[in-house]
Amino acid sequence: METGKVKALETTLANLNKKYGEGIVMKLGDAAKLNVEAIPSGSLSLDIALGVGGYPRGRIVEIYGPESSGKTTLCLHAIAEAQRNGGICGFVDVEHALDPAYAAKIGVDVNSLYVSQPDTGEQALEIAEALVRSNAMDVVVVDSVAALVPRAEIEGEMGDSHMGLQARLMSQALRKLTGAVKASNTCLIFTNQLRQKIGVMFGNPETTTGGMALKFYASVRLDVRRIENIKQGEEVVGSRTRVTVKKNKVAPPFRTAEFDIMYNEGISTAGDLLDLAVSEEIVIKRGAFYSYGDIRLGQGRENAKAFLVENPALAAEIDRLVRERHGMSIVLEPKAQVRIPVSAGVEENPSVPLAA
């Protein structure tokens, strides 16, 4: 580059740094953080599908799917993982449906989780923005976009037409939130519901609520589907769930993950690990029997899962081998299934932080 151009560029950069702060413009190779930091999802198979080991920090994530597919469960697992690593989390409960007892069973420290149950969509998004701009939050969840009702709609009559109010609200909020999320290195997670397009004869008639803005601003979009029920005898005790990464700006998209969500414990980490180990031939399945080296894990998948839960050191060893195969970081401590009694998590300490 010519000397005159170099001097002109150096002068311009010096003026910009003086006006807006150091590092406002830099060469990509000089960036302090090139690797994407991530918060584990609570499912090893989903961490692998996401490509960076979990939900990316400093980005917006959208989790959508049909009713009772596991969207809130995924959010609570992300909160539990962040808290386990010393993080602070917030939950904007727009649907007013958060169950503290279930959150405690999943592993969420309900006594340190900041919860808000706002009255309007504007209030919910202002609270989310304030939490993000505090630079103290690791994860902020907004559950859900469909429940973000604009103030004008609440104050109006039933049956009044309010065309495009929610979409405009989301578009304005996301324009303000994106930069703040990046600056604070917060993971902002929105859940969303599905609706049917009217008159669609060909192609997928499903769409999400809240307009198009979130589809553009989200770095990761996850489609969550319940594919079958898990039964013990005649009783349904859980569901087999498939998550498809529909959009991913930090790794290749369209990967899938399948795991069990058990009704009394959330994501079955033992079942997830067992499926991955079998697919990588770390655990060998012959007929109905599962074995790891010379160790017989059990006959049938449920017995093998129970064996891994009862032997966390062995589960940690298999976890390490699976992570090595996928080039992921190693979890040093055994990651056993978390089971917190409801009485210990909620009833004895009922004072969950709330902000109206």
From TrEMBL:
ATP binds at G65, P66, E67, S68, S69, G70, K71, T72. It is found in: Cytoplasm. One of its GO terms (molecular function) is ATP binding. GO terms for cellular component: cytosol. SMART domains: AAA. Pfam families: RecA_C (PF21096), RecA_N (PF00154). The keyword Transferase does not apply. GO terms for biological process: DNA recombination; DNA repair; SOS response. The keyword ATP-binding applies. Keywords: ATP-binding, Cytoplasm, DNA damage, DNA recombination, DNA repair, DNA-binding, Nucleotide-binding, SOS response. Residues 35-194, 199-272 form the RecA family profile domain. Its main location: cytoplasm. Belongs to the RecA family. PANTHER family: MITOCHONDRIAL DNA REPAIR PROTEIN RECA HOMOLOG-RELATED, RECA. HAMAP family: RecA. NCBIfam families: tigrfam_recA. Can catalyze the hydrolysis of ATP in the presence of single-stranded DNA, the ATP-dependent uptake of single-stranded DNA by duplex DNA, and the ATP-dependent hybridization of homologous single-stranded DNAs. It interacts with LexA causing its activation and leading to its autocatalytic cleavage. This is Protein RecA. It comes from Caldilinea aerophila (strain DSM 14535 / JCM 11387 / NBRC 104270 / STL-6-O1). The lineage of its organism: Bacteria, Bacillati, Chloroflexota, Caldilineae, Caldilineales.
